[in-house]
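ok so I'm stuck.
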Amino acid sequence: MGADCKESLPHRQPPATIASFNVASITRPVSNPTLTRRQNALSLFQDFAEKALAAGHPPKGLEQSFAATLQISPSMWSQVKSSRPIGDKLARQIEALSGRPAGWLDVERANASPSPAESAFLELALAAWRATNSAGRRALRGHLKAIVAAGA
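replied:
not stuck anymore, here's the structure
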């Protein structure tokens, strides 16, 4: 019976060999206008927040103040930060109200070096990472992911 079953199965051909090549070596980074505009808008907010904090304003309410500066609702700003694409009309409005030239949001920029506050945070995060075991690292990573997911 075993021999009959083997003979009744269709003959299997070995899989065809596919030429191997490195896709990364032939592809070029593609600009994503939605992502570029969002990153630049977030950069504008970071500049706004750093100046406001340096001027002695409390951190609470900075997002609402920034939205008011751009003449959009806090809800709209929250959507822009997380997922809403910035259309051409809104992009030009943001640029004009933040004192940037038209098209500024559309230009990819190299990641700026961290601000002093960001550097201090990175040093603290690195110290916490190095001071704990794998369970602590998982907990730290999970906590940071939860904060990012919540949009805080």
